[in-house]
Amino acid sequence: MNTPLPRHACFLRAQGLLAAAAGDELLMMSVELGRYFNLNEVGARIWALLETPVGLDGLVGVLVAEYDVAPDLAQAEVQGFLQALYQRGLLDVVDEPAA
Asked: What single string gives the DSSP state of each residue in 40-64?
């Protein structure tokens, strides 16, 4: 799954994951994969936003508004994070944004 994610696609978190907050972090378990994952505060925020289909620009816009980060840095970091989620089977690519 090293294929780059489509730039203008929408993304949605994969189904079948158990998640629990632990302070500012999020602990997740994939029953299907038998693996645990840990997300920091920003990763947990992105995960929350992925509850409904959202595009890269939408994610970056929210993070720039909520955190002290430059748009170009946010875009690069979010794109890398989404790619990592996708490679681990935690992210689905969908065609349409939420209404």
From this structure: -HHHHHHHHHTTS-EEHHHHHHHHH
| Residue carrying the six token digits 């990763």 | 43
Domains and their CATH numbers in the chain: 10-88 (3.90.930)
What does the pLDDT look like over 18-40, one tens digit per residue?
Answer: 889 988 899 998 888 888 999 99
83 vs 8: CA distance, rounded Å: 14
pTM for this prediction: 0.86
Percent helix, strand and coil across the chain, each to the nearest 5: 35, 25, 35
Q: Which tens digit of pLDDT belongs to each residue from 48-85?
A: 999 999 999 999 999 999 999 999 999 999 999 999 99
Query: Among candidates 8, 14, 10, 3, which has minimal Cα distance to 85?
Result: 14
